[in-house]
């Protein structure tokens, strides 16, 4: 790992939520780099701060302290429209709750990031190829409400890849899938990210999934505690 290879640089990042019961410090003085082409797995028990860290690195939320740079831009200094532009042009997301638009077909949901970039819905070729990769071609014309949880997750993964993002952020992307489909979608994520020089940052409880990462960062009480390279 070399500094020049870093796509994401986080330094002294903290996040505190202010509640009726008082301040809740979720992340404390976190510093880490994510290299271009790296597969980084974030692990830790529930409440350790891994999903919060994922959101901060992806520009979905702002740190209370510290700084985060993505592809040379300080995310913590950007306005909301500027952050939206970064997310639209450079990032892909796979959320636990899918965030599929219920009134759009599966195919249209996958095409949606392209539509936001001004390409519309006319060209279906790439979206259909991604749906084929996750085994959902036969569901292309269905509305999300007709899909199982696992099918929704696979559709969300196809959507995350449609714009060839610099980095994909995934929060438990295989949590709703059986082992066979879990391996299938992980292979697809790797194929479209780390295998072509893009980055993948993934939160997972699954040790088998994490073992495929180049690096694993464990969070405990809001701080990274252990970094382990998987065996070769």
Could you characterize the architecture of this molecule?
There is one protein chain. This protein is an alpha/beta fold. It has a single domain, classed as P-loop containing nucleotide triphosphate hydrolases (Rossmann fold, 3-Layer(aba) Sandwich). The protein is built from 7 helices and 10 strands. It has helices spanning 50-57, 80-90, 106-116, 125-133, 149-161, 179-192, 207-210, and strands at 6-19, 22-35, 39-43, 65-70, 73-74, 91-94, 167-171, 199-203, 215-220, 223-228. The strands form 2 sheets. Strands 6-7-8-3-9-10 form a 6-stranded mixed sheet. The chain is globular and about 45 Å long. The model has no long low-confidence stretch (mean pLDDT 88).
Unreliable spans are none
**Helix share, percent:** 25-40%
Main β-sheet, spatial strand arrangement: 6-7-8-3-9-10
Total number of strands:
10
Assign the CATH topology: Rossmann fold
**Annotated CATH architecture:** 3-Layer(aba) Sandwich
Radius of gyration: 17 Å
Order of helices and strands: EEEHEEHEHHHEHEHEE
The tally of structural domains comes to 1
| Strand residue content | 25-35%
Q: What average pLDDT do the residues reach?
A: 88
Describe the largest sheet: 6 strands, mixed
């Amino acid at each position: 790992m070399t500094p020049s290879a870093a796509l994401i640089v986080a330094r002294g990042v903290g996040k505190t939520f202010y509640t009726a019961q008082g301040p809740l410090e979720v992340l404390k003085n976190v510093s880490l780099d994510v290299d271009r082409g790296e597969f980084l797995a974030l692990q830790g028990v529930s409440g350790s701060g891994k999903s919060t860290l994922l959101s901060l690195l992806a520009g979905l939320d702002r740190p209370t302290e510290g700084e985060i740079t993505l592809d040379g831009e300080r995310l913590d200094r950007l306005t909301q429209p500027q952050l939206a532009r970064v997310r639209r042009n450079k990032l892909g997301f796979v959320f636990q709750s899918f965030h599929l638009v219920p009134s759009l077909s599966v195919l249209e949901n996958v095409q949606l990031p392209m539509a936001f970039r001004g390409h519309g819905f006319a060209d279906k070729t790439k979206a259909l190829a991604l749906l084929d990769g996750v085994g959902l071609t036969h569901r292309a014309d269905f509305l999300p409400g007709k899909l199982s949880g696992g099918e929704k997750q696979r559709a969300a993964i196809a959507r995350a890849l449609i714009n060839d993002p610099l980095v994909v952020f995934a929060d438990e992307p295989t949590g709703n899938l059986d082992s066979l489909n879990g391996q299938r979608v992980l292979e697809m994520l790797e194929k479209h990210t780390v295998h072509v020089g893009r980055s993948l940052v993934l939160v997972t409880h699954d040790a088998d999934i994490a073992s495929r990462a180049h690096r694993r960062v464990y969070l405990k009480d809001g701080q990274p505690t252990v970094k382990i390279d998987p065996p070769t």
